[in-house]
Write a structure and sequence with these properties.
The complex is a heterodimer of chains A (about 280) and B (about 350).
Chain A: H1 2-16, H2 24-42, H3 45-67, H4 74-95, E1 101-103, E2 113-115, E3 118-120, H5 122-140, H6 142-152, H7 154-159, H8 164-190, E4 193-195, H9 202-213, H10 217-237, H11 241-246, H12 249-267
Antiparallel strand pairs in A: 1-4, 2-3
Helix pairs in contact in A: 1-5, 1-8, 1-9, 1-10, 2-3, 2-4, 2-8, 2-9, 3-4, 3-8, 5-6, 5-10, 6-8, 9-10, 9-12, 10-12
Chain B: H1 2-37, H2 42-54, H3 57-82, H4 90-104, H5 111-140, H6 144-166, H7 197-214, H8 216-226, H9 228-233, H10 238-263, H11 280-290, H12 295-318, H13 325-338, H14 341-361
Helix pairs in contact in B: 1-13, 2-3, 2-12, 3-7, 3-10, 3-11, 3-12, 4-5, 4-6, 4-10, 4-11, 5-6, 5-10, 7-8, 7-10, 7-12, 11-12, 11-13
The chains are: A mainly alpha (about 280), B mainly alpha (about 350).
Amino acid sequence: MVPITLAAIGEIIEESAGLFNIGLEGMILISALTGALGAEYFGSAVGGLLVGAGTGAALGLIFGMINTYWRGDQLITGVGINLLALGFVAFMLINLGAAGFHSVPRDVQIKLIPVGVGSLSPLVLVTIALAFIVYWVLYRTQLGIRIKAVGENPAAADVAGIRVNAMRLSAAVVAGAFVGLAGAYLSVDWFGSVTKEISAGRGFIALAVVVFSGLNPLLALFGGFVFGFFDGFATWISTYPKIKDIIPWQFVAMAPYIVTLLVVAGVIGRVRFPKALGIPYLRE
Amino acid sequence: MGSRDRFRALHQYLNPINESLLAGAIGLAVGSIIMLGLGHSPIEAYSSLFRGSFGSVYSWAESLANATPLILTALTFAIAMRGGLFNIGAEGQLYIGAIAAVSVSLIQLSAPFHLVVALVAAMIAGALWSLPVAILKLTRGVHEVISTIMLNWIARFFAFYMIANVLMDPVRGEKTISIAETSRFARVIPGSSLNYGIVVSILAALLILFLLWRTTAGFELRAAGHNPESSNYAGISHKKQVLRVFLIGGALAGLAGAVQVMGRPPTYALISGLPQMIDLGFDGIAVAMIGRNHPIGIIFAAIFFGGLMVGGRMMQMSAGVPLELVRIVEGVIILALAVPELKRIFHFVRAKFVRKEQRGGN
């Protein structure tokens, strides 16, 4: 639930400002790698998370630059980031020695908080807190209104004295940090290792959660719970012997994607997106 | 006058070519920086890459063999872009096409007929897998990026299931039954992977070229992509465009899967985990971008890419640089091509150059 929600919140910030980034998947992937390396380098899990967030922010900066001041094509930039990530992570994993796999030492992984039946990652709490904070900023502050103005009607925002491209670029960088944190969580906390398929479509599921949420971080949190449940459920069920005999694991593995598709198809009619989403702003 | 017009027409083609070349150069440059950073020699790496891709008849044949499916998946993406849609579903449609092609080998038919049936089955399967994308977009407004990605993952697991449980080889569990002899593409050059599937790919590209620029349907499609509002005003049905784009695109991607499994020696079968299929759809996007979504450009871009794939293996062996570097270069090329400012840089350089020339003339 954590990575999907964090990435979705990042994308919500960005889309509110009018940027549509389909490169989440690649950003998660690269940050998972750098986060793991950062954790080892600094000898602490928090260091790893920060490096992951920083990596995400840097990628957000690249995405933001291309799609604001350089007036690029957002979808194509996203595809480029995804391809680049796939190559970069596979390349680095080979350079690190072990083919296609890199594990993070246990002592620099996130310590889980024991609760009742099991244990809980502190990042779950961080994610919930961040969802509320971003909701508050977007819907209750002047800054939030400015961000949304840039996404809705950049020309009017420009007239009102908001620097459209600077605002969008900042949104992309902040969003990148959220997405990067999601990636670092995967390697430093959840799996404790990096593979080139660690993101497993979570960036795209996050995009679907954004659609579901209608750009509301709190609904994204709820959506993240639902999709995270199916994600975990699929993993759990595939190891459960009796069910494994009845339903082939491949069909269980499909479940999160089918659910995503159905949910998106079910809710999308009543969701409204910013008017200038995906369109570069040209001052006339 | 006549010569100037011809010059202008030539420029119309040269500009996109120049942009692609410039983006390619940027990609290779970033690749060199990464290699230098990790202590590899870029010159050694790129020269072995070139030798591996276009250094001999054999390497040319391998490059062309790798280009064969890429031409088709690139056409899937390109035809959608021409129609103003973003179809990244070739990846999944390709798996489904390959599964359909292998399934046809369960029945027995005579030689040329069997091959045709397999190709048609793959095209229909790919188109059907693509259909929900069009339906969801038209009836529910679901963005094609999200639906195609979800269907790609579903297709992958569905293919895994079919390989392991339905089409499996009774003797060797890790692969499917092999494509029947009567349904295989013959090799063009014995000993290489190049087979007559390449003819199918090139014919498909020419057919799409004809469709886009010589038929009413193609004109409508390009008009809708260029300016959706005015094309709607002109009475071009949006619904028809979306259906056309996804059905034709799906059929092309399905064909790509079929050509790959029916043409590539030695196994002529799908292997568990789909190693010979994975990423062909996504690479197709890059090929379409470099080929500027033009069928002829795509043929050349696919050969370039096929060369990178073959040469990458050579580079890995003789220069010790992992094959994956090639994909980093691809990613950077796409990012460079996403920036229209690149064009401006080019115009800027050319404007300077032309001015100098004029001054020289005076």
